[in-house]
Write a structure and sequence with these properties.
The chain is α/β, with parallel strands linked by helices. It is 36% helix and 16% strand. Helix 5 links the parallel strand 4 and strand 5. The radius of gyration is 15 Å and the shape is globular.
Amino acid sequence: MLSALAAPAPAAEVRNVVGSVVCAVEPTLSSLEAARQAAQVARGGRLELVPVADRSTGIGASYLAAARYVAARQGTVAVAGDTRAGAGALVHQAGRDDLLVVGAGEDHRLSAFARAAVTGAAAPVLVARPLQRGTDLDARPLLVGPRDDRSAAEVVRAAQAGSATIVVLAGAEAGDPFALAVAARAPCSVLVARDMRRSTDSAP
């Protein structure tokens, strides 16, 4: 199944195997891009928007409202998640059959929450970065399989050279430094796919 993520439509393939799509909403513009991509993947399914800002600062209701509007523009009606759940709880509660979508962060740096999700979540994680206008997430995917011997830097260069719209890291488990390095440096969105084959291999 994971090889099918690369061609022709990773978003559609992911949509077929995940349970809920859970999108973390921080008070950042990158979270709105995350909501847009989450809505594309969840189209026809369940999308939950969960604010994860530190309680000391809170999260503006405007960001959550904007995320719901962005999702609706993609044809997905999103529901609001538990506003009492902190960032750490969201990372650890997302199950292997869910998809956790996070914004990459601002200023070309991976946000603290995105780092926590990539390294700590059992669920597959989509780290969202902006796409060129009119370009679909699955237009030019780059698949990196478990037996791929390229370094993180080589994968990033390949993504740059091929103008990849998404890098799919197949079978990358939580705590994998390679996955974190690619997610932090890639010029595009990165799907840290975990072992998503489990969802289909166990099907009757």
